[in-house]
Amino acid sequence: MDYPAAWLQGASLGEKIACELRLQIIRGHYAPGTVLSENQIAADFGTSRSPVREAMKVLSGEGLIRLERMGAVVIGMTPADMEELFDVRLLIEHFVVKRLVHKDTAPIAAALERLTDKMEVAFKHWDIAEFSLQDFLFHEMLVLEAGHTRILHTWNGMRQLILTVMLAATEQRFSIKSNESLVTIAKHRTLAAALLDGDVKRLADLVDDHYRDTRNAVNDSVLSPFRGSAF
């Protein structure tokens, strides 16, 4: 499965290249230490080197590659990187659910339920890309509805990385442990329902529980290239 074309509408060529390379790096198809050649990537994508450079700057900013004179060296997602990504996401979601309980949560909960319905349909049709996207949009809606500009800015800075990690994890989950996807659906419904109650402690516990499961789900798919390495 390549990076979903439907997710690339309106993207520049550089952004499209970055999305495809990001996915291959996170999947481990480009192992840590692999040297990426601008010329080779340009040839693979049938383009000039300019959009490749644009893509590499983005990936470098995300810490996935290290730019060098003759190209770029793949770093990938180390265990420490992954822990930090989850730490930031967990901090954000703890903050936003506390903020959301002071709003009218009924329409938010209803919208979250609709996204979860779409996840369930995607699961029934074995649509990995759609399941990943709706899973991501569920969490993004919590951030958007919180109405906090700086939190949203932080989220947007990690958006593509989070989405791609979720896609890679969903691929792994569907191929090996598909029952975990049903657990995710159930936990999304529980979280949406808990918003209506306004119990901050319960919401925090549910977020913690959900992220424990998510960390486990991505371990095999994202961190496998680092097993037995020095990282």
TrEMBL record:
SMART domains: FCD (SM00895), HTH_GNTR (SM00345)
A Pfam family this chain is assigned to: GntR
Keywords: DNA-binding, Transcription, Transcription regulation
Keyword NADP: no
Annotated Gene3D superfamilies: GntR ligand-binding domain-like, Winged helix-like DNA-binding domain superfamily/Winged helix DNA-binding domain
Highest taxon listed in the record's lineage: Bacteria
Entries under PROSITE patterns matching the protein: HTH_GNTR
Domain HTH gntR-type, first and last residues per copy: 11-77
Alphabetized PANTHER family for the sequence: GLUCONATE OPERON TRANSCRIPTIONAL REPRESSOR (PTHR43537:SF24), TRANSCRIPTIONAL REGULATOR, GNTR FAMILY (PTHR43537)
Record protein name field: GntR family transcriptional regulator
Species in which this protein is naturally found: Paenibacillus terreus
Classification lineage: Bacteria, Bacillati, Bacillota, Bacilli, Bacillales
